[in-house]
Amino acid sequence: MTIQSVLLPVFVLVLLTFILLFWMGRERVGALTRGELKPNAIALGQDAWPKRPAQLSRSFQNQFETPVLFYVLVALAIITKKDDFLFVVLEWLYVISRIVHAGIHTTNNRINLRFSAFAVGVGILIVMWVIFAVRILLS
Question: Which of 100, 120, 121 is nearest to 110 (CA)?
Fold first, then answer.
């Protein structure tokens, strides 16, 4: 596989993270401007954000949980040359699951749907790691 085809899903996931970051920032600034919370509460580390900025903040934070395992795996697959067509397909499926998860989280936030998207992504990530480990151990 070309390096571009292997890294494109990574770039898309990074883009999602930045979109959530800037969206969250805009909502936080708006909440401060509207006086919906006191800056001292933030300075003291209190979780005082209104619902919408808090929801976006949590969605942004989610991009540093299981995706970290994805980023590490992609780097290892490139280094060890275990990045093939199946790997890229699984990458895209994982990234799509993360986009769906973030979409649910930032809109209706229906927990059952959000959990389903999360579970699908984790399942794909587990499959990716198992395939990678088997390939490494058997090579």
Answer: 100
CATH topology of domain 3-138: Four Helix Bundle (Hemerythrin (Met), subunit A) (1.20.120)
Per-residue pLDDT of the chain (139 residues; tens, 9 = 90+): 899 999 999 999 999 999 999 999 999 999 989 988 877 777 666 677 888 999 999 999 999 999 999 999 999 999 999 999 999 999 999 999 999 999 999 999 999 999 999 999 999 999 999 999 999 999 9
pTM here is 0.93
Identify which of 29, 28, 90 has the alpha carbon closest to the alpha carbon of residue 56: 28
